[in-house]
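If your schedule permits, I should be very grateful for your opinion on a structural question. Kindly check, if you would, that the fold set down in the tokens agrees with what the sequence suggests. Thank you for your consideration; the sequence and its tokens are set out here:
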Amino acid sequence: MKKILHLSHTDIRYDSRILKEMGALEASGKFDLIGVGVKLEEGASSSKKHLKAKIVSLPLISKLLSFLPKPIRYGLNMVELTVLLVFYGIRSKPAVVHCHDTFALPAGVLIKMLMGSKLIYDAHELESDKNGQTPALSKATLKIEKWAWKRIDLLISVSDSINNWYVENLGPKPCLLILNSPEIVELKDGDVDKVKDNYFRNLYGIPLEKKIFIYIGILSDGRGIDLCLQAFASETESAHVVFMGYGPLTSKIESFAAKCPNIHLHNPVPHEQVVAMVKNADVGLCFVENVSLSDYYSLPNKLFEYAFSGLPVLASDFPEIDKIVRQYSLGFCSAVDLDSMKKMIANIIDSPVSIVSGDLSELGWGAQAARLNQAYDRLLQP
């Protein structure tokens, strides 16, 4: 079997997209997979997905040098990670190196040059223009991408707009769209109690007549969380909102929850449980703020998790999100400002809410897995 080496600057044990892609390739029976990432403890719930693939989480010594300026630390991180990843590349002699972020791209290029591997760049975002990134880091990221561009055999990204941006700004390249769709799996007996009907109502004492809105994902700036907190703080008697995840805004949500009986914080759960748990809510919140091109062109995981939970979504009116919501009748889109959001939330509270979606199979993980395997077959043709 041909060896495939997946490289990332994340901790692959917690990265649902990488695990799903590795699982899709493993299921084909054609490949021997290795995943090498960085050891991180960020508060995420580890996946219960079991792969035969070898997954390595590397501790980086340079990450302990917190006293150094961030640009210097960033450079040291990249040098250390590149050396370690190239070592794994030389040992494994992969047919394909699949890089999941720009940080791993220099190692991917070097492995390709040394071992003759094919190189895939899987941009999980528009990497040079994303939320929370300094201008200097954005410039450095773009320089790395431009340096590596001619050596990349296939670009994978999460939306057509992001793929198009890369082609327009860096040059023609074979592109593949792999949506951040959830992988629907059968729950084990020990998880069933967590996803029974009325789970959130029973957990938080929410009356049957009150609608439950839910937000799932990273709790950080740029995701409309501050606006949602303000909106629901004024709807104390009308509806409840559950935030399920982890991140820098956890303490802020806890503060609002202490004052507002209709605002709740739930711990993150394994990716495999998300869709089943979300079914216990009434409306999914998918607000993204226009703080970067990556956000403006995004198709967030949560949009598809809500869709496959059967929940109507209330989402940002950005091009890619709006296109999917309209095409598949997934719910409603709104401008991302407090007045617009409050008005839309109030309309949903006062009206029966349901969605009549068509066939969602094109959005499902099965379709994404099939496209990924087909792309690998084409890439590895003699």
